């Protein structure tokens, strides 16, 4: 490993585990660390098993931390204690934002919603996802998801009136923005 690395970006796939993450403890000058997990795969990285041990080893040098793994309020406290010099902390569990993804379709969304509860999801943004229809959006519209903002632009066959009616019937406080 290159001990002089200061920026690390990890896009986690099925083969990346806490064990591999712990190998980054050798980086003595780490300043910017980003871990992105796929919403379509079950998370293999854990805060307690991989992220926190890494932060306890080198959190003092970190200035930016970007995580898309689930964290509890207790774990956020440990992260903050471990990283006293952090300037930017991004915990990105509340928004799904996908732009210009022509391969995204209702079936993929259905699989993602089957594997993940999206219980923290407050913002949903799809732009230029022409194969996403009303059926795909409907998978996100349930009582378990505390959605407050939905932004859809240039998505397949989406019925904004149907979504508004559903939100009114269920007394959801959702801000809609649907464009073609």
Automatic annotation (TrEMBL):
GO terms for biological process: SCF-dependent proteasomal ubiquitin-dependent protein catabolic process. SUPFAM superfamilies: RNI-like. One of its GO terms (cellular component) is SCF ubiquitin ligase complex. InterPro entries: LRR_dom_sf. It comes from the Eukaryota. This is Uncharacterized protein. It comes from Daphnia pulex (Water flea). The lineage of its organism: Eukaryota, Metazoa, Ecdysozoa, Arthropoda, Crustacea.
